[in-house]
Structure prediction request, 348 residues.
Amino acid sequence: MKVSTEVFVTGATGFVGEHFLRLLCAEGVAVTALCRSSSKRGHLEDLDITWVLGDVTDGPGLTAAVMSFGKAARARGSRAWFVHGAAVISYATASGPLQDQANVEGTRNAVDAAKAAGVDRMLYVSSVVAVGLASGPTTSVDETEPFESVQQHTGQPYVGHYMRTKYLAEQLVHEAVDRGLNVVTVNPGAIFGEAQELSNTAEIFGRVDKSLIGRFAGPGSLSVVGVTDVARGMLLALERGNTGERYLLCERNLQLSELMEAISKQLGHNFRIRTLGPRTWALLVLATRIVDLVKPLRIVTPTALRLLSVQLRFESHKARRDLGWEPAPFDQVLAETVAWLRRIGKVG
Ligand SMILES: NC(=O)c1ccc[n+]([C@@H]2O[C@H](COP(=O)([O-])OP(=O)(O)OC[C@H]3O[C@@H](n4cnc5c(N)ncnc54)[C@H](OP(=O)(O)O)[C@@H]3O)[C@@H](O)[C@H]2O)c1
Prediction:
């Protein structure tokens, strides 16, 4: 007899969370999801979800919620799975303390809650930024890359708080395996697709479409993937992933100029994008640092620009081979993203 599965999800109201919830519901999986009193969840009203109010920074509250979910699932004869996707994604200079709380302490609380509740399996949503860096625009790295490559290629241990906190959070998850937790990790690249609120990647489209700044690219690269493929990869990792292992979820690697040219083509412009050299880019980073001191920046921050100058290039052979993960071609993801941005009037 097939054992039924119930899933408790954090980060459910976000970009990835929405697509993951839709996939789970389409698969007939019963879902319990954590949300804050401030979370927007009107767009998820059509789904049959059991909502639990809470915050990942409240350890005892999270543990009580996951324990109660696990107990109820077991009483119904179901497997209990726990997915931790909640995080604060920000490249703002002042975001360090908030990301320490939500991303690092929140993950510590999630791991403790999963242990206390005795869930059958946990999935942690990490990021490629927690893996390391490639050495140049023609190379790429995989799950085995030592994180010290960030220091090697940038001269610093981390490029910003987001990278630091996602790295530290993933270490907590790996340590929990030694304490007997059945946990698997996915590390998506930069995620594109339809969202309720403009995601960080969606911001790039407006710049390429309307602004002169969007004709110039940093010297770095990005590993890219569609959001529905990330949701599918999460479910496959839960079903087929090996305990304690990580699976990178990326469709392809693009230099920033290639990505922006592909976006420009989808928008019908066919702009030629110029890559600025590392020295010019370093001057731009310096200029934003000065502006940031006077008026704190939110999107085009010094950290965001520094990330656009490094080689975030990754391979997903392991997820494709071991999970049977087959992401859609990125051109299709871009076309769908542009169609959505046109529908909501964000691009012409
Ligand atoms: N987007 C990407 O390109 C990308 C790439 C690689 C990895 N990831 C990872 O994927 C995961 C999901 O990212 P996303 O793009 O979906 O982010 P998102 O749209 O910003 O959503 C973040 C989610 O986390 C929740 N959250 C934040 N702080 C919380 C707290 N203290 N307590 C409870 N919930 C909290 C948010 O709830 P509210 O609705 O209440 O704010 C929201 O549901 C993250 O772990 C991120 O690091 C994302």
